[in-house]
Design a protein that fits this description.
- The chain is globular, with a radius of gyration of 15 Å.
- The relative contact order is 0.19.
- It is of the alpha+beta class.
- Helix content is 25%, strand content 32%.
- It has an 8-stranded mixed β-sheet with strand order 6-7-5-4-3-2-1-8, with helices on both faces.
Amino acid sequence: MDETTPVVRIEPWSEGDLELLRALNTPESTEHLGGPEPEGKLAERHRRYVALSADRAGAGRMYCVVSADSGEPVGSIGFWEKSWRGGEVYETGWSVLPGFQGRGIATAATLAVVEEARAAHKHRRLHAFPSVDNAASNAVCRKAGFSLIGECDFEYPPGTPLRSNDWCLDLGGTAPGRAGSARGEAGTGS
């Protein structure tokens, strides 16, 4: 595989992705996110993801990350609107199944989501807030071209304090007609 060969595709989150969400809801996968959610909260999250993926007003979108090699779901990623420090921005977050981590999948999916957020032409900035202790997600931000703004206090899940790094990527403008790809694929970034 070379750098132009997609390692993942991102597909809009759908009703059929609840099992993937359950598979991502393990102590190992949620170690930096406050731990697994109970089934009721997970069902609520799934409904929010489906609704966000149906939105066409630029509020964001959630995706199932699919391996380009096997066609199997390997994670989730998305972007959504957030009020942050007096302005509106997009926020992004991701999760990759443990058996697929360390292969560049999160970075490739993040690069694909950057293009989707850029193509929405709504907000100029995309932020990510991984825990300061989450070395892997902080590395994804760095590899995907985000700039580290600094540490901040964050809540995730809501009501649970989390010390996070604030990473920001300039989407390069929000004017309609801006050139940019929205293919939903990304190369091998690792």
